[in-house]
Amino acid sequence: MKIGFIGLGIMGRPMASHLKAAGHEVFIPERASLTQELRDAMTVLPDAAAVAEAAEVVILMLPDTPDVQAVLFGPKGIEPALRKGQLVIDMSSISPTETKGFAERVGRKGCDYLDAPVSGGEVGAKQASLTIMVGGPEAAFQRALPLFQAMGKNITLVGESNGAGQTCKVANQIVVALTIEAVAEALVFASKAGADPAKVRQALMGGLATSRILELHGERMIKRTFDPGFRIRLHQKDLNLALQSAKDLGMALPHTASAQQLFSACVAEGHADLDHSAMVHALENLAAHKV
Ligand code: NAD
């Protein structure tokens, strides 16, 4: 297929590379930050609109809701270039509510829209083992399935209404934030009590408390490797979506709110662009002890 890929950051770069490796033609928009490797592998076009003109399927992997809005409908956006029969797939993690509006507007151009955010992080993107949570019409899902299979493993059509994928992703981010908090709290506790945190992590990995987050993020907390990965500022964006949606629904998310406050404490220390495992800093400050 002819695929346009817009948003070539930590996640987008390996995802677009897998599509290319699967035999698709991949068009990307010019951007100063493009690596030479990407320039050599893909077809670089002047802007997003030119990419939409060249492609059958346009994939977005952008940071936040306003970025998706700008690329779709902004002054240099793709909307005027869209034509009947094209498929737009937004794989960014953004607002479920705004997603419905974006899908309607793209639908008025005769195009299908899928929201298809992912989980699995940079490692999952590189290994093409992402979990992909999709909202949108079944027929569009079937059309996109070979592309999803080139980038991921656990692929679920969560619902046929747009926004269903994004809602699922918000739920995912609640679990991830609270698990990072639990792992960080446990390691700070064990270390302050005099146990070797590396041994504690190793022991817990054999029992009921095991998780990929204990494995990956626990290791980062112990080795102090906080290069992103997934930036704290992006996880804050996702928890804001959770807290705003909860407010709209008239319900409480007490531990999501406290995890968000711990991320805010990290941001106050200048850590917004560290990996989200750096949440451990906030708990270390409260305990007056470093893991
Ligand atoms: P990133 O900041 O590394 O990459 C975003 C890319 O989009 C950058 O290269 C930026 O230059 C580009 N971009 C921004 N505005 C643009 C525009 N107008 N036109 C073209 N390109 C533009 O972010 P990321 O970590 O790759 O995350 C992307 C999305 O995936 C986010 O919504 C994030 O929440 C989600 N996500 C990230 C991870 C992770 O572990 N990093 C995991 C799952 C989901």
Automatic annotation (TrEMBL):
Domain 6-phosphogluconate dehydrogenase NADP-binding residues, every copy: 2-159
Superkingdom in the source lineage: Bacteria
Uppermost EC category: oxidoreductase
Segments forming a coiled coil: none
A single MF term (Gene Ontology): 2-hydroxy-3-oxopropionate reductase activity
Residue ranges of the TM segments: none
Keyword annotations of the record: NAD, Oxidoreductase
Documented EC number(s): 1.1.1.60
InterPro entries: 3-OH-isobutyrate_DH-rel_CS, 6-PGluconate_DH-like_C_sf, 6PGD_dom2, 6PGDH_NADP-bd, HIBADH-like_NADP-bd, HIBADH-related, NAD(P)-bd_dom_sf, Tartro_sem_red
Domain 3-hydroxyisobutyrate dehydrogenase-like NAD-binding residues, every copy: 163-282
PANTHER family (UniProt xref): 3-HYDROXYISOBUTYRATE DEHYDROGENASE-LIKE 1, MITOCHONDRIAL-RELATED
Family affiliation: Belongs to the HIBADH-related family.
Name recorded for this polypeptide: 2-hydroxy-3-oxopropionate reductase
Higher taxonomy: Bacteria, Pseudomonadati, Pseudomonadota, Alphaproteobacteria, Acetobacterales
